[in-house]
Amino acid sequence: MRSFVWIKIKGLTWSDKLSEYVLWLMALFLTEVWQLNYKTAVTGVNIFRGLEDIAPLTLQHVVDSYLGNYGMAFLSSVAYTGGLVFLSLSALGTCNTVGKNSCHVKKRYKFLFFLALPQLLVGISFHKLNSLEELLSEVECLKPSKRLRLINIVAWIVVNLAGTFVLSRIDIWTLRFAIPTMCMLVATLFFWSCSVHNSIKRHDPPGSFLTTMRRVIVPSFYLRSTEPNQGYDNTRTRYGRRLRCLDKAIINLPNNADQEQRNRVIRDVEEVKKFICRIPFCMAFFVLGIVSSVGDTYFIQQAANMDFKEYEAPIVVLQLWYELSKKLISKLYMKIMQKLLKNNSRSNNNNSNNSNSSVHNLFSSKYAGCVGVAVSMIFAMLCCFTAANVEKHRLDKVKDMYDKHGTASDGIIPMSMFWLLPQFFLLGSFDGILDESIDLFCNTHEAPTSSDRVMRVFSLLIIGLGKIGSILSVFVARKASAWVGKTSWFEEDLNKSRLDKYYWVLAALSIANLVYYNILYYCTSLRSEVRESY
Length: 534
Known about the structure:
Blueprint: H1 2-23, H2 26-33, H3 38-90, H4 103-108, H5 110-126, H6 131-138, H7 146-165, H8 173-192, H9 194-199, H10 209-222, H11 248-251, H12 259-277, H13 279-283, H14 285-293, H15 298-304, E1 306-307, H16 317-349, H17 357-405, E2 413-416, H18 421-442, H19 450-485, H20 499-523, H21 525-533
Parallel strand pairs: 1-2
Helix pairs in contact: 1-7, 1-8, 2-3, 3-5, 3-6, 3-8, 3-19, 7-16, 10-12, 12-19, 14-19, 14-20, 16-17, 16-18, 17-18, 17-20, 17-21
């Protein structure tokens, strides 16, 4: 019975993974079916992908304050299903690539398309939280066995292969969207069954950290009195003299406040200070969000203009390669760090008491997270270097075609799309290591605090802002290149654009970001926080 409940909960994850394969082609859907130019399609996809990473902060607040994990899981699954339904219906009114007379039909379905987007945002953003993993831990008497882990691996393989080689063979976009819709609907209905609801331990939501921030920050702006009350003994928080304005929440406690209330307020102030002091650390993710945005946009547009029929392989093979790279390289990084830090922990334990072993585990987790962020930045640089060189080679092929034939037949370049495998590999490695590193830094071996839970989704928010900020970076690059070189790097035709130069700019930004991160680590409290944990 408990195993069946586990499968029902995991079914939401498997359905989301299948939906990712059709949503990954959104840029092609807008360019090939809706007849938009690639610049408009890229702008829309970047806004959508950015909001996917921004929305989890709001959803985490709703989970912690009102609905809990089960309620939010059910609500988001219903929204996800509804969004896929409206998206499937919107594909009915697509442009005919042969006759333009049917393009007026597309306008009737615009409302359905834009109605689907916010619902898809809720569904996709929920899966970026750890709520489903927490929901599995709330199931009574459930310990994942080897059989369940094997089922999860087999299901992951089947879903990825189905998304790559089954959905890609369907030429009708409505049907291509409808299959993940049916899978999500079935998964939602199974999840809604009484067996899941009755098997979960009931407890009230823990409360949102955003509410805690309001209780601490509001007094620092509105309370003018700095005279300590009788019960205040100049108790210092862990962060000492930093952000002393927040101590007003402690100073202005009523004189009759008991010790439990005082300890709660001191703990809240300490958590808020920790969160604010970590914000500069999260700002390093902005540039990483800009680099990550090219995977769902320009990389796909490059592949669509290259020969992907040479080996009868669908273009979605690149997404499968990305997923494999993201999964395997992140696991490999975790294994390497565990082995290195285990050896370090053994040498430290020889010189310390056994009671300090948990402290070493805490140090290992935060240290591996900090190192992982730097490693992901290196992978981001290598990805930009590789993408720039491959794009330069592609443009050389385009130039040769125009020299020989005067045009590019059907816009397809005689260059295999498998030239893009290295940059998709590096992109997947970069995204996978970054996700694992954020989890390691924010979720320690001890029970994560409320600020740790919010710090993870706040990091996603900065990445989402970076994806939306990539629109600004493209705009600046387009205007600057047109002003300096009289020719923009971003023309209406991708074959006349110079994406390779834009990739070099992203590589330079990644190098500057790595320098910023190292300065941040060695010159701020980030390094001392890791050392204090040690």
